[in-house]
Amino acid sequence: METPGNITEVAPRVWVVHYDWMHVNITLIGGSDGPVMVDTHGSEKQARIVADDVRRLGAGPLTALVNTHNHWDHWFGNDVILSEYGDLPVHATDFALDRMVESGGVHDAHPAKHSRADEILSTTLRPATHGFSSAVALDLGDRAVELIHPGRGHTAGDPVVSGPRRRRDRRRRPGRGVGQAVHRRRLLPARVAAHAGPRARPDDLLHGRGPRARSGHRSRLRPGPARRAGHHRVETIRDLASRGVPVSRALEQGEWPRDPEQLLSAVRLGYEHLPRAQKRLPLV
């Protein structure tokens, strides 16, 4: 029997719901009009549990969905959530939306090898409805959420969900002129990205701009150790590149905090994002 998700409030009105199956984290960002949900899980059965958890949270009816990318365990729950909450906009990057639409409602081969294949493959597919190329803002009433596509991450279509921000209030207050902001817009400590960690951009990790909540696969929300490991990877990549070590030899010559074979994609992307000034010859 499937159990409800474990709900953790990681910032004011920002909740991460963790599910043991696939170690999926789904994020809800609340606003006065209702929350936006980031990802919907990987099957009809599991999505019904997600819908029950949203009701249990009591943050109001959903106003929009976001699919972080086109892998089945992040958007196969769309149909159930939309059936429960109405015809909501479903946002995804143009890349992810195109891949969902290209499926034509036909499941790909990967879930067929899963231990719960029958459950997954019996799910009705409903793709995202609203694509964006670089950035889009979602209005939650008293807050705005920004969807940003900074470049390739876990896939070529992963966005970062940034926010929420407090709206400007331009009402007159004693001692303030008309048009002056009563409340400064403030970014709360919550960013959501799919499978962020080692795939985040080097400068984001180095300067502490990486995600605080993951809407990917993670058994525990422990951003501190993950961020320290990210800093170590970034400095290692920069050191290797500055000494002219090519990416093809970076894994064998660097000191890494985990199995180097698991960092192949992260190291390659790190080299790609380094400024030209930080690369030294020979890099062949």
What does this structure look like?
By secondary structure, this protein is of the alpha/beta class. It folds into 2 domains: 6-221, 4-Layer Sandwich (Metallo-beta-lactamase, Chain A); 225-278. The chain is 29% helix and 19% strand. The chain contains 9 helices and 12 strands. It has helices spanning 44-57, 72-75, 78-85, 94-102, 117-121, 202-206, 223-242, 247-253, 264-273, and strands spanning 6-11, 14-19, 24-29, 36-38, 64-66, 90-93, 130-132, 135-139, 143-148, 160-166, 191-193, 213-214. The strands form 2 sheets. The chain has a 7-stranded mixed sheet with strand order 1-2-3-4-5-6-7. Helix 1 (44-57) packs across helix 3 (78-85). The longest helix has 20 residues, at 223-242. The protein is globular and about 55 Å long. The protein starts with 5 loop residues before the first strand and ends in an 11-residue tail after the last helix. 39% of the residues are buried. Mean pLDDT is 76; it is low at 165-191 and 193-213.
Summarize the structure.
The chain is α/β, with parallel strands linked by helices and 284 residues long. The chain has two domains: 6-221, Metallo-beta-lactamase, Chain A (4-Layer Sandwich); 225-278.
Topology diagram in text:
Layout: E1 6-11, E2 14-19, E3 24-29, E4 36-38, H1 44-57, E5 64-66, H2 72-75, H3 78-85, E6 90-93, H4 94-102, H5 117-121, E7 130-132, E8 135-139, E9 143-148, E10 160-166, E11 191-193, H6 202-206, E12 213-214, H7 223-242, H8 247-253, H9 264-273
Parallel strand pairs: 4-5, 5-6, 6-7, 11-12
Antiparallel strand pairs: 1-2, 2-3, 3-4, 8-9, 9-10, 10-11
Helix pairs in contact: 1-3
